[in-house]
Amino acid sequence: YATTPAFKHQLEEFRSEIQRRDQEIVAMSAKMKTLEEQHTDYQRHIGVLKESLSAKEEHYTMLQADVEELRSRLEEKNRIIEKKTQTALQATQEKNRVTNEINELKDHVDIKDRKINVLQRKLELQEAQKKAHVIASKSSEETNSLKAQLEEQKRQLEAQRRQLEELRKSVDGRSRQLEEKEKHVAELDAKL
C-alpha cells in the first residue's frame, strides 16, 4: 500500500497519542503508588495512635485506681484522727473531772483538819479541867463524868482521824489517776 502523507500524519498522531497515553498511565501509576504508600503510612500512623490511645487509657485507669486508693487511705486517716481527737477530748474531760474531785477532797481534808484541831483543843481543855476538878474536888461522880466526856472526845477525835486518813488515801488515789490521765492525753497529743 502506498503511504500517503495524510496517512503518515495520522499515524504519527496515533503514535503521539499512544505515547501521551502511556506517559499518563505511567504518571497515574506513580501517583497511585504514592497514594498507596501514603495510605499505608496513614494506616501505620493510625495504628500507632490507637496503641498510644490504648496505653493512655490504661494509664488513666491505673491513675484512677491510685486516686481511689489514696482517697480511701485519706478517709481512713481522717477516721483515725477523728477517733484519736475524740479519745483525747474524753481523756481531757475525765482529767478535769478527776481534778475537780481531788480539789473537793482536798477541801474536805482541810475541813477535817480544822475539826480535828478543834477537837484536839477541846480534849486538851477537858483534860486540864479534869485535873483541876480532881484537885479541887474528890467527887468520884464528877470525875467519872469528866472521864466519860474525855473518852467520848477521844473516840470522836479518832473517828475524825480515820476519816481524814481515808480522805488522804482517796486524794492520793485520785492524784495517781490524774497523772495517768495526763500521761495518756500527752501521748495522744504526741500521736496527733
From TrEMBL:
Entry keyword Coiled coil: yes
Gene Ontology CC annotations of this record: axon; cytoskeleton of presynaptic active zone
InterPro entries noted in UniProt: ELKS/CAST
Swiss-Prot/TrEMBL keywords: Cell projection, Coiled coil, Cytoplasm, Cytoskeleton, Phosphoprotein, Synapse
Gene Ontology terms, MF aspect: structural constituent of presynaptic active zone
Disordered: annotated span: 134-192
Family annotation (SUPFAM superfamilies): Tropomyosin
Regions of compositional bias (Basic and acidic residues) in chain numbering: 149-192
Localization annotation: Cytoplasm, Cytoskeleton; Presynapse
Domain of life, source organism: Eukaryota
GO biological process terms on file: neuromuscular synaptic transmission; regulation of synaptic plasticity
Name of the featured protein: ELKS/Rab6-interacting/CAST family member 1
Species in which this protein is naturally found: Schizaphis graminum (Green bug aphid)
